Amino acid sequence: MLLQDKTAVIYGAGGAVGGAVARTFAREGAKLYLTGRHIDNVEAVVKEVEAAGGTAEAAQVDALDEKGVAEHLDTVIDKAGHVDISFNAIGLRNTTLQGTALVDLDVERFMAPISTHVQGNFITARLAGRRMTKQGSGVIMTVTSIPSRVAIPLMGGVAVAMAAEEALIRDLSAELAPHGVRALGIRPQGMPDSATMDDVFGVHGKAYGLSIEQFANLMAERTHPHRLTTLQEMANVAAFAASDHASAMTGTIVNLSLGTITD
């Protein structure tokens, strides 16, 4: 198993992305400490993991609460002795954050994804990085999306937030890699099996007079295989990237855009 004897902390574990990553990390042997603002959602993922034979604990932690994140990490280290993977999968509902032209968007809605995504990733990465550098190893990970690299209308502050997350990953790697700590992100194409994507596709589809299905098909046609990434594909890559087999991967964003972005 790729992650045997690894200890992983996942933020936003109750969401579609965090849940998929949690189930896959557990399948690969990691011991999980799952967190989120809504404890019921996190506990539901814990039950799934345990039903499949994995090990997981749930905690109500807001990734924007620096004190809460620090206390939880210290609890994890007290129990497990180390933290090997910090995976940030926090997100915001996009029903009001996208779909409005920038010139018509108010500052609060523009800043919401920047404040949440970037600040949350900075807090969790900084606190994990401090502890990982002391132990001389670890992996800090996050998920971004293709608007970080592709200009798409009506994205509001989301594209800016995704680009900032990727810059943060590169800078974290530059500072932490000499101490044995890797930092990397995953950039999937829109994943239609995520409820968030239903929201996003609905908002953008409406702007163009298209149904959710029609907009999803339009996005799929822009990829090389004419389909979209799945949650499980993203999670499988995340498990490999978090493993020791990916020890040369740091300071980079794994491109899962299915050819939408050609590196």
Automatic annotation (TrEMBL):
UniProt entry tagged with the keyword Zinc: no
Coiled coil spans: none
Domain of life: Bacteria
Gene Ontology molecular function, alphabetical: oxidoreductase activity
Keyword annotations of the record: Oxidoreductase
Gene3D superfamilies xref list: NAD(P)-binding Rossmann-like Domain
Record family assignment: Belongs to the short-chain dehydrogenases/reductases (SDR) family.
The protein's name in its UniProt record: NADP-dependent 3-hydroxy acid dehydrogenase YdfG
